[in-house]
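Before the break, one more example. Copy the sequence into your notebook; we will annotate it together after we see the structure.
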Amino acid sequence: MALVSLDNIEKTFGARTIFDRASFQVDRGERVGLIGDNGAGKSTLFRMIVGDLQPDAGTVSIARSVKVGYLHQDPVFDHDSTVLDEAEEAFTELHALSQRLRDLEHQMAELSGDALDRVLKRYQQVQHDFDLAGGYAWRHRLEATLLGVGLERATWSQHVSTLSGGQRSRLALARLLISEPDVLLLDEPTNHLDLAAIEWLENYLQTFSGAVVLISHDRYLLDRLATRIVWLTRARLHSYPGNYSAFAEQRRVQELSQQRAWEQQQADIEKQKEFIRRFGAGQRAREAKGREKRLNRLLASDQLIQAVDTAKRIHLSINTDQRAGDQVLQVRGLCKSYEQRTLWQDVKFDIRRGERVGVIGPNGSGKTTLIEVLLGRRDGDGGDIRWGANLNIGYYDQQLGDLDPDATVLEEAMGDRQITEQKARDVLAMLLLRGDDIHKPIRMLSGGERARVRLAQLLLDQPNVLLLDEPTNHLDIQSVEALESTLQQFAGTILFVSHDRFFLNRIARRLLVLEPPTVRDFLGSYDDWTRKKAEEAAQRQQRAQSKPRPAAAPAKPAPRPRKDNPYARPFGRLTLEQLETEITETEIALAEVQQAFGSDAMKDPAQARSLKAEYESLTQKLQQLEEEYFSREQ
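Here is what the structure looks like once it is written out:
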């Protein structure tokens, strides 16, 4: 059954057609990857589904009782609320059901006979709805989700106004996932997530029981998750079964077939035109006239095959005439700290000519800082950095902060480079920056256009060493694939930071893995690294299971940030493991009492009072246990 369906949608903005008789539907259990060029209208499609925009024609239908959740690229919060307050908004309905249960319990304690039976029936229905909404496990679900997207406990009491843009994006994602809608509409959900958080999200969505539609440039995510790819192109939606790699292969075969059919049709058209020219005024003029009419009908019909459009494809080639020395970079004893936090300590590595080294690590581990320290843009706290001889280093800054916002595209491309204007125009054209676009000031460009201006500068500089900080940010899939092909053919040395796992696999042959305060030097691709991590985790688990357990000893409480006496609190002396056990057992006991509320036991006033007292006692105990649990540091 279709949860969401769009039928013959049409939408225009001014003279630009975004959708032309486009149709689309999402069934339960599907995970749909929605792809297309930047600005094609993918986010517009989401806004029409949730009702923020209305189509000019066609219909948008949502099945009855289906709840749609939408992750915006620019989420809205109450900036005076804390992280925990915003996350708990997802449980507003659950809290209302809990209050309704308490109200009905108070009523049942004072009723008997038929009146009690009627309230019991209402209570059983509300209890059923409460259980479906998550019941008493809501606090644990909230905690697991916040930690999963990378929001540590230290941020939970912060006001939203103090969060970075990346933290706000993660909070919006957590709030949406906690609400568990039937359909998830995710617009670039991996933006601002580090690799660990992306992998957590991936695992979450693989087990999600509803439907998922995600707009993403993350091909690795699309390969792991998508059961279908929908491609938005030329104002139409085209559906392809399978993941992104399956789509790419289907498109390759389709384009090959389309190009052959176009060539055959063009040959036939030229043959007909030649016949018309030769015999238009001779004895076969009637036949020529008939052929001309048929040809004109073909040229004006949908049967005219279009050539494969290569004009909108980026073409890149980084050439260098300067050969670097064998030793490109040598690092010894490198250190860097911020306040009380050590990013890296005593780091040592070498990079030789022709190597392709990826830098990965969690957010805040100092990946960008490492690149800037190596370039001398930022000071390290200690250590020695030695660059080799005969180097021409090209640097790509993910913030694109080196671009002058008031300069035009052409002016930025030329700069102080000793090149002709035509050379600059030719390189910009390879990156689809041509015509009036080259006279636009940088401040008027989109993120993707500014990224292409910086890539044009790198092509013109002809470096033999590339330092790239998140080069795939701002680029659509087609542009990223063009960049990958270029870097694979690049004869120089590459050191780059990226959270794009597909890109890492295609380019990196070695990884520097930042795990503060250490840096691991790993020879292999990203997939090799994930396999290595899985092996290490299995070995740790095996050692833990085989390690003999000591005789029962008094359990030591986990380290606590609080300085008050733990023995003065109801559950202060319990360890975190004991607290988790107690919380689980208390929730089970509460559920059993809830079940009893819906039974005939409530018809006996004495039993009803006893159950109510037990319920209140367990509720208070659970609250105290959770307060103690959440007061501890992880």
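Residues 558-563 have pLDDT under 50 and may be disordered. The longest strand covers residues 2-13. Try to locate both features in your own notes.
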